[in-house]
């Protein structure tokens, strides 16, 4: 596994990645997990499965979070999970939400993106081919994290998260730094003709919505990059790692099937 956009670290047996675009900001921490360094044993869950909605012992998942957070310098006690349903809903996270999704029940649903300006809260997104997008507003000291599958991408969740940060924190797109992925790449994400037509009719991004050898494909990472660019964001890091091509390092729904585990992307301010 090699990346030009991300640094790859291994600490205490846990392998994770950080985007280089965030390196110069000392008040933000961001990391993407891999499959390596956990305690999960089942074949498609080995070993750092971070999904509770999998066929795994919840105790394993909690231990995996403890190991990932210790390696990547997050406080596991201060994580907040989204409630992902492939919606286009964005939720403001506060101190009252700390621990929800891992140590406390969530009192919300249909949340595929969340934002905060509270230091010390780790915003958690889960993926296994879908597109994670992390947001940093260094001017107003605010962050966001969004889970964009094809539904969230089609419904402009990437831009809606930005809009909600503007509404809550005064975030301006030109100030925002974003990272996109790792996720499934354009060559692995074949879709139906119907879905291809829907995306082409709505977006028209011919470099990201295309036909090859009579098959239809979407480049979800690039589509989301274009959505953000059109919204005014010009500092964007795009992952060069495909979760499906690298299913030995990442969980991939297309590559491993429905029994697979989940990776997590976490961002927090310190």
Description:
The structure is a single chain. The chain is of the alpha+beta class. The protein has one domain (6-269): CNF1/YfiH-like putative cysteine hydrolases (4-Layer Sandwich). Helices cover 21% and strands 27% of the residues. The longest helix has 15 residues, at 58-72. The mean pLDDT is 98.
Q: Strand share of the residues?
A: 25-35%
Order of helices and strands: EEEHEEEEEEHHEEHEEHEHE
CATH class: Alpha Beta
Note poorly predicted spans.
none
CATH superfamily: CNF1/YfiH-like putative cysteine hydrolases
Write the layout of secondary structure elements.
Layout: E1 6-11, E2 14-19, E3 28-33, H1 58-72, E4 79-81, E5 90-92, E6 113-116, E7 122-127, E8 131-137, E9 142-148, H2 150-154, H3 157-169, E10 177-180, E11 190-191, H4 193-202, E12 209-212, E13 215-218, H5 220-230, E14 235-238, H6 253-256, E15 263-269
Parallel strand pairs: 4-7, 5-6, 10-14
Antiparallel strand pairs: 1-2, 2-3, 3-15, 6-9, 7-15, 8-9, 8-10, 11-13, 12-13
Question: Nutshell version of this structure?
Answer:
It is built from six helices and 15 strands.
What descriptors fit this protein?
single chain, 270 residues, alpha+beta, six-stranded mixed beta sheet, 6 helices, 15 strands, 21% helix, globular
């Amino acid at each position: 596994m090699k990346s030009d956009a991300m640094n790859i670290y291994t600490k205490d047996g846990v392998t994770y990645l950080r985007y280089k675009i965030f390196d110069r900001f000392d008040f933000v921490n961001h990391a993407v997990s891999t499959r390596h360094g956990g305690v999960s044993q089942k074949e498609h869950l080995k070993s750092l499965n971070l999904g509770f909605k999998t066929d795994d012992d919840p105790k394993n998942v909690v231990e995996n979070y403890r190991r990932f957070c210790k390696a990547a310098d997050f406080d596991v006690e201060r994580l907040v999970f989204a409630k992902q349903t492939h919606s286009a809903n964005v939720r403001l996270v506060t101190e009252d939400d700390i621990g929800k999704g891992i140590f406390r029940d969530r009192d919300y649903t249909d949340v595929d993106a969340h934002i905060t300006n509270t230091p010390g809260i780790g915003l958690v997104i889960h993926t296994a081919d879908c597109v994670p997008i992390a947001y940093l507003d260094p001017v107003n000291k605010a962050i966001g994290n969004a889970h964009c599958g094809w539904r969230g991408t089609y419904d402009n969740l990437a831009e809606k998260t930005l809009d909600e940060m503007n509404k809550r924190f005064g975030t301006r797109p030109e100030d925002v730094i974003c990272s996109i992925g790792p996720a499934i790449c354009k060559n692995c994400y074949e879709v139906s003709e119907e879905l291809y037509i829907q995306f082409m009719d709505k977006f028209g991004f011919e470099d990201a919505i295309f036909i090859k050898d009579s098959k239809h494909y979407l480049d979800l990472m690039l589509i989301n990059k274009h959505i953000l660019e059109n919204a005014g964001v010009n500092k964007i890091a795009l992952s060069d790692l495909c979760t499906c091509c690298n299913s030995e390092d990442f969980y991939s729904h297309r590559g491993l099937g429905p029994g697979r585990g989940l990776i997590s992307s976490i961002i927090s301010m310190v």
